[in-house]
Protein backbone atom coordinates (compact mmCIF):
# COMPACT_ATOMS: atom_id res chain seq x y z
CA UNK A 1 0.00 0.00 0.00
CA UNK A 2 1.35 3.41 -0.97
CA UNK A 3 2.37 5.81 1.75
CA UNK A 4 1.82 8.75 -0.58
CA UNK A 5 -1.39 10.78 -0.18
CA UNK A 6 -4.09 10.29 -2.83
CA UNK A 7 -4.59 13.02 -5.42
CA UNK A 8 -7.26 13.10 -8.12
CA UNK A 9 -6.11 15.16 -11.10
CA UNK A 10 -8.59 16.46 -13.66
CA UNK A 11 -6.97 17.34 -16.97
CA UNK A 12 -8.56 20.12 -19.01
CA UNK A 13 -9.17 19.38 -22.67
CA UNK A 14 -8.44 21.13 -24.89
CA UNK A 15 -5.21 22.54 -23.46
CA UNK A 16 -1.82 23.55 -24.78
CA UNK A 17 -0.82 24.27 -28.37
CA UNK A 18 -3.38 25.77 -30.74
CA UNK A 19 -3.23 25.66 -34.52
CA UNK A 20 -1.69 29.14 -34.79
CA UNK A 21 1.13 28.22 -32.39
CA UNK A 22 1.79 24.91 -34.17
CA UNK A 23 2.02 26.78 -37.47
CA UNK A 24 4.34 29.47 -36.08
CA UNK A 25 6.78 26.96 -34.59
CA UNK A 26 6.62 24.92 -37.78
CA UNK A 27 7.50 28.03 -39.78
CA UNK A 28 10.74 28.45 -37.81
CA UNK A 29 11.65 24.76 -37.88
CA UNK A 30 10.89 24.37 -41.59
CA UNK A 31 12.83 27.53 -42.38
CA UNK A 32 15.85 26.15 -40.52
CA UNK A 33 15.53 22.81 -42.34
CA UNK A 34 15.11 24.45 -45.74
CA UNK A 35 17.52 27.38 -45.56
CA UNK A 36 19.85 26.42 -42.72
CA UNK A 37 20.89 28.43 -39.68
CA UNK A 38 20.60 31.16 -38.82
CA UNK A 39 17.07 32.39 -39.25
CA UNK A 40 16.03 35.62 -37.55
CA UNK A 41 12.76 35.92 -35.63
CA UNK A 42 11.37 39.30 -34.66
CA UNK A 43 10.13 38.95 -31.06
CA UNK A 44 9.35 35.62 -29.40
CA UNK A 45 7.68 33.42 -32.02
CA UNK A 46 5.20 32.47 -29.25
CA UNK A 47 5.19 33.40 -25.57
CA UNK A 48 6.95 30.40 -24.08
CA UNK A 49 10.59 30.36 -22.94
CA UNK A 50 10.93 26.58 -23.35
CA UNK A 51 9.82 26.80 -26.98
CA UNK A 52 12.03 29.81 -27.70
CA UNK A 53 15.09 28.24 -26.07
CA UNK A 54 14.55 25.05 -28.06
CA UNK A 55 14.44 27.01 -31.31
CA UNK A 56 17.52 29.01 -30.31
CA UNK A 57 19.40 25.74 -29.87
CA UNK A 58 18.47 24.82 -33.45
CA UNK A 59 19.81 28.08 -34.88
CA UNK A 60 17.03 30.68 -34.55
CA UNK A 61 18.12 34.16 -33.49
CA UNK A 62 15.44 36.20 -31.73
CA UNK A 63 15.61 39.98 -31.97
CA UNK A 64 13.60 42.84 -30.51
CA UNK A 65 13.49 44.81 -33.76
CA UNK A 66 14.72 44.75 -37.34
CA UNK A 67 17.47 47.17 -36.27
CA UNK A 68 19.11 44.22 -34.48
CA UNK A 69 19.48 42.24 -37.72
CA UNK A 70 22.60 42.72 -39.87
CA UNK A 71 22.42 42.81 -43.64
CA UNK A 72 21.57 39.21 -44.46
CA UNK A 73 20.01 36.85 -46.98
CA UNK A 74 18.74 34.62 -44.15
CA UNK A 75 14.98 34.40 -43.55
CA UNK A 76 13.44 37.00 -41.24
CA UNK A 77 10.30 35.67 -39.56
CA UNK A 78 7.49 37.69 -38.00
CA UNK A 79 5.97 36.19 -34.85
CA UNK A 80 2.50 34.67 -34.43
CA UNK A 81 1.24 37.86 -32.76
CA UNK A 82 1.40 39.94 -35.94
CA UNK A 83 3.26 43.16 -36.73
CA UNK A 84 2.45 46.73 -37.66
CA UNK A 85 2.56 47.53 -41.39
CA UNK A 86 5.70 49.59 -40.85
CA UNK A 87 7.66 46.42 -40.02
CA UNK A 88 7.33 44.57 -43.37
CA UNK A 89 7.76 47.92 -45.13
CA UNK A 90 11.11 48.42 -43.37
CA UNK A 91 12.06 44.81 -44.10
CA UNK A 92 11.32 45.35 -47.80
CA UNK A 93 13.39 48.53 -47.80
CA UNK A 94 16.32 46.53 -46.41
CA UNK A 95 15.65 43.75 -48.93
CA UNK A 96 15.13 41.06 -46.30
CA UNK A 97 13.61 37.72 -47.25
CA UNK A 98 10.62 37.67 -44.87
CA UNK A 99 8.22 34.93 -43.81
CA UNK A 100 5.09 35.93 -41.93
CA UNK A 101 4.08 33.52 -39.14
CA UNK A 102 1.18 35.70 -37.95
CA UNK A 103 -1.72 33.55 -36.78
CA UNK A 104 -4.44 33.62 -39.47
CA UNK A 105 -7.00 34.49 -36.78
CA UNK A 106 -4.98 37.60 -35.91
CA UNK A 107 -4.73 38.46 -39.61
CA UNK A 108 -8.53 38.19 -39.75
CA UNK A 109 -8.79 40.95 -37.12
CA UNK A 110 -6.34 43.09 -39.12
CA UNK A 111 -8.50 42.75 -42.23
CA UNK A 112 -11.68 43.58 -40.29
CA UNK A 113 -10.09 46.77 -38.96
CA UNK A 114 -8.88 47.77 -42.43
CA UNK A 115 -12.33 47.27 -43.96
CA UNK A 116 -14.01 49.37 -41.28
CA UNK A 117 -11.41 52.11 -41.77
CA UNK A 118 -11.92 52.16 -45.54
CA UNK A 119 -15.65 52.59 -44.93
CA UNK A 120 -15.05 55.66 -42.78
CA UNK A 121 -15.47 54.13 -39.34
CA UNK A 122 -13.34 54.84 -36.29
CA UNK A 123 -12.06 51.61 -34.74
CA UNK A 124 -12.27 50.77 -31.04
CA UNK A 125 -9.89 47.94 -30.16
CA UNK A 126 -10.54 45.94 -27.00
CA UNK A 127 -7.18 44.63 -25.81
CA UNK A 128 -4.24 44.95 -23.45
CA UNK A 129 -1.93 47.93 -23.89
CA UNK A 130 1.61 46.91 -24.82
CA UNK A 131 0.75 43.40 -25.97
CA UNK A 132 2.46 42.67 -29.32
CA UNK A 133 -0.82 41.58 -30.91
CA UNK A 134 -2.42 44.90 -29.96
CA UNK A 135 0.55 46.85 -31.27
CA UNK A 136 0.34 44.91 -34.54
CA UNK A 137 -3.39 45.51 -34.94
CA UNK A 138 -3.15 49.22 -34.17
CA UNK A 139 -0.24 49.45 -36.58
CA UNK A 140 -2.38 48.34 -39.52
CA UNK A 141 -3.98 51.80 -39.67
CA UNK A 142 -2.83 55.43 -39.53
CA UNK A 143 -2.16 57.02 -36.16
CA UNK A 144 -5.40 58.14 -34.51
CA UNK A 145 -7.60 55.70 -36.45
CA UNK A 146 -7.82 53.25 -33.52
CA UNK A 147 -8.74 53.83 -29.89
CA UNK A 148 -7.61 51.16 -27.43
CA UNK A 149 -9.77 50.27 -24.43
CA UNK A 150 -9.31 47.56 -21.82
CA UNK A 151 -12.30 47.68 -19.47
CA UNK A 152 -15.91 48.82 -19.27
CA UNK A 153 -14.65 51.80 -17.24
CA UNK A 154 -12.72 52.87 -20.34
CA UNK A 155 -16.02 52.84 -22.24
CA UNK A 156 -17.40 55.38 -19.77
CA UNK A 157 -14.52 57.72 -20.64
CA UNK A 158 -15.15 57.61 -24.41
CA UNK A 159 -16.54 60.86 -25.79
CA UNK A 160 -17.47 60.12 -29.40
CA UNK A 161 -20.49 61.95 -30.76
CA UNK A 162 -23.46 59.71 -31.52
CA UNK A 163 -23.22 60.52 -35.24
CA UNK A 164 -19.62 59.23 -35.48
CA UNK A 165 -19.46 55.88 -37.28
CA UNK A 166 -17.83 53.35 -34.94
CA UNK A 167 -16.75 49.71 -35.14
CA UNK A 168 -14.95 47.47 -32.68
CA UNK A 169 -12.51 44.57 -32.91
CA UNK A 170 -10.78 42.64 -30.13
CA UNK A 171 -7.50 41.00 -29.27
CA UNK A 172 -7.82 37.25 -29.83
CA UNK A 173 -6.64 36.11 -26.38
CA UNK A 174 -8.92 38.00 -23.98
CA UNK A 175 -11.17 36.81 -21.17
CA UNK A 176 -14.50 35.79 -22.70
CA UNK A 177 -16.38 37.08 -19.63
CA UNK A 178 -14.59 40.43 -19.44
CA UNK A 179 -14.86 41.05 -23.17
CA UNK A 180 -18.58 40.30 -23.15
CA UNK A 181 -18.96 42.95 -20.43
CA UNK A 182 -16.96 45.55 -22.38
CA UNK A 183 -18.88 44.87 -25.59
CA UNK A 184 -22.15 45.19 -23.69
CA UNK A 185 -21.06 48.58 -22.37
CA UNK A 186 -20.00 49.70 -25.86
CA UNK A 187 -23.32 48.70 -27.42
CA UNK A 188 -25.28 50.37 -24.62
CA UNK A 189 -23.40 53.66 -25.12
CA UNK A 190 -23.19 53.48 -28.92
CA UNK A 191 -26.14 51.38 -30.17
CA UNK A 192 -25.12 51.71 -33.82
CA UNK A 193 -21.54 50.46 -33.30
CA UNK A 194 -20.57 47.62 -35.61
CA UNK A 195 -18.76 44.49 -34.47
CA UNK A 196 -17.30 41.41 -36.13
CA UNK A 197 -19.62 38.92 -37.80
CA UNK A 198 -17.96 36.26 -35.70
CA UNK A 199 -16.26 36.75 -32.35
CA UNK A 200 -12.62 37.82 -32.59
CA UNK A 201 -11.58 35.88 -29.48
CA UNK A 202 -10.10 32.76 -31.03
CA UNK A 203 -11.55 29.27 -30.74
CA UNK A 204 -8.55 28.04 -28.71
CA UNK A 205 -8.82 30.79 -26.11
CA UNK A 206 -12.56 30.19 -25.82
CA UNK A 207 -12.23 26.41 -25.49
CA UNK A 208 -9.47 26.55 -22.89
CA UNK A 209 -11.46 29.00 -20.81
CA UNK A 210 -14.57 26.81 -21.11
CA UNK A 211 -12.68 23.83 -19.66
CA UNK A 212 -11.35 25.86 -16.73
CA UNK A 213 -14.83 27.29 -16.17
CA UNK A 214 -16.16 23.76 -15.59
CA UNK A 215 -13.27 22.33 -13.60
CA UNK A 216 -12.13 25.18 -11.33
CA UNK A 217 -15.20 25.16 -9.03
CA UNK A 218 -14.84 21.40 -8.47
CA UNK A 219 -11.18 21.12 -7.43
CA UNK A 220 -9.16 22.41 -4.50
CA UNK A 221 -6.29 23.68 -6.63
CA UNK A 222 -5.30 24.38 -10.23
CA UNK A 223 -2.06 24.48 -12.14
CA UNK A 224 -1.93 26.60 -15.30
CA UNK A 225 1.09 25.76 -17.45
CA UNK A 226 2.14 28.93 -19.21
CA UNK A 227 4.46 31.90 -19.36
CA UNK A 228 3.87 35.11 -17.38
CA UNK A 229 3.84 37.16 -20.61
CA UNK A 230 1.25 34.89 -22.25
CA UNK A 231 -2.10 36.70 -22.35
CA UNK A 232 -4.22 33.59 -22.83
CA UNK A 233 -2.44 31.77 -19.97
CA UNK A 234 -2.98 34.70 -17.60
CA UNK A 235 -6.68 34.70 -18.48
CA UNK A 236 -6.89 31.00 -17.50
CA UNK A 237 -5.34 31.75 -14.11
CA UNK A 238 -7.69 34.70 -13.53
CA UNK A 239 -10.71 32.62 -14.53
CA UNK A 240 -9.83 29.78 -12.16
CA UNK A 241 -9.55 32.28 -9.31
CA UNK A 242 -12.79 33.96 -10.32
CA UNK A 243 -14.60 30.62 -10.31
CA UNK A 244 -13.65 30.08 -6.69
CA UNK A 245 -10.63 27.79 -6.84
CA UNK A 246 -8.65 28.62 -3.70
CA UNK A 247 -5.17 27.62 -4.85
CA UNK A 248 -4.12 28.63 -8.36
CA UNK A 249 -0.56 28.82 -9.62
CA UNK A 250 0.73 29.53 -13.11
CA UNK A 251 4.04 27.77 -13.78
CA UNK A 252 6.35 27.35 -16.74
CA UNK A 253 8.14 24.24 -15.44
CA UNK A 254 7.74 21.75 -12.60
CA UNK A 255 10.61 23.50 -10.81
CA UNK A 256 8.36 26.57 -10.44
CA UNK A 257 5.75 24.76 -8.32
CA UNK A 258 5.38 26.02 -4.76
CA UNK A 259 4.86 22.65 -3.09
CA UNK A 260 3.90 24.20 0.24
CA UNK A 261 0.66 25.37 -1.36
CA UNK A 262 -0.27 21.89 -2.62
CA UNK A 263 0.71 19.74 0.38
CA UNK A 264 -2.81 19.17 1.74
CA UNK A 265 -4.90 18.95 -1.45
CA UNK A 266 -6.79 15.88 -2.65
CA UNK A 267 -7.99 17.25 -6.04
CA UNK A 268 -6.21 19.25 -8.72
CA UNK A 269 -7.08 20.69 -12.12
CA UNK A 270 -4.40 21.06 -14.79
CA UNK A 271 -4.54 23.15 -17.94
CA UNK A 272 -2.05 24.79 -20.28
CA UNK A 273 -2.06 28.00 -22.29
CA UNK A 274 -2.07 27.87 -26.08
CA UNK A 275 1.69 28.36 -26.34
CA UNK A 276 2.65 25.71 -23.74
CA UNK A 277 3.88 22.37 -25.14
CA UNK A 278 2.50 19.10 -23.79
CA UNK A 279 5.97 17.98 -22.73
CA UNK A 280 5.80 20.58 -19.93
CA UNK A 281 2.41 19.27 -18.82
CA UNK A 282 3.89 15.75 -18.70
CA UNK A 283 6.81 17.04 -16.64
CA UNK A 284 4.46 18.61 -14.11
CA UNK A 285 2.30 15.49 -13.90
CA UNK A 286 5.43 13.43 -13.22
CA UNK A 287 6.37 15.80 -10.41
CA UNK A 288 2.97 15.32 -8.76
CA UNK A 289 3.22 11.55 -9.23
CA UNK A 290 6.47 11.57 -7.25
CA UNK A 291 4.65 13.08 -4.29
CA UNK A 292 1.10 11.70 -4.58
CA UNK A 293 -0.75 8.52 -5.52
CA UNK A 294 -2.37 10.05 -8.59
CA UNK A 295 -5.62 9.10 -10.32
CA UNK A 296 -6.24 10.86 -13.63
CA UNK A 297 -9.42 12.06 -15.31
CA UNK A 298 -9.80 14.14 -18.48
CA UNK A 299 -12.73 16.50 -18.97
CA UNK A 300 -13.29 17.28 -22.65
CA UNK A 301 -15.35 20.37 -23.49
CA UNK A 302 -14.53 20.55 -27.21
CA UNK A 303 -12.72 18.67 -29.97
CA UNK A 304 -10.21 20.68 -31.95
CA UNK A 305 -9.18 19.73 -35.48
CA UNK A 306 -8.18 23.18 -36.76
CA UNK A 307 -5.00 23.47 -38.79
CA UNK A 308 -3.48 26.26 -40.88
CA UNK A 309 -1.30 25.92 -43.98
CA UNK A 310 2.28 27.14 -43.92
CA UNK A 311 3.06 30.50 -45.58
CA UNK A 312 3.44 30.21 -49.34
CA UNK A 313 7.24 30.66 -49.06
CA UNK A 314 7.41 27.25 -47.37
CA UNK A 315 4.51 25.29 -48.88
CA UNK A 316 6.50 24.05 -51.86
CA UNK A 317 9.76 24.03 -49.95
CA UNK A 318 8.83 21.62 -47.17
CA UNK A 319 11.64 19.11 -46.56
CA UNK A 320 10.81 15.44 -47.03
What's this entry about, in short?
This protein has 320 residues and is an alpha/beta fold. The protein contains twelve helices and twelve strands.
Explain this structure to me?
With 320 residues, the protein is an alpha/beta fold. It folds into 3 domains: 6-17 and 203-300, 4-hydroxy-3-methylbut-2-enyl diphosphate reductase, catalytic domain (Cobalt-precorrin-4 Transmethylase, domain 1), CATH 3.40.1010; 19-103, Rossmann fold (3-Layer(aba) Sandwich), CATH 3.40.50.11270; 105-189, 3-Layer(aba) Sandwich (Cobalt-precorrin-4 Transmethylase, domain 1), CATH 3.40.1010. 39% of the residues lie in helices and 19% in strands. It is built from 12 helices and 12 strands. It has helices at 19-35, 49-58, 86-93, 104-118, 132-138, 152-157, 176-189, 203-215, 231-242, 259-262, 278-291, 312-315; strands at residues 6-13, 39-42, 60-63, 75-78, 97-100, 122-126, 146-149, 166-170, 221-225, 247-251, 267-272, 293-300. A 5-stranded parallel β-sheet has the order 10-9-11-1-12, sandwiched between helices. α8 runs parallel beside α9 (231-242). The model has no long low-confidence stretch (mean pLDDT 95).
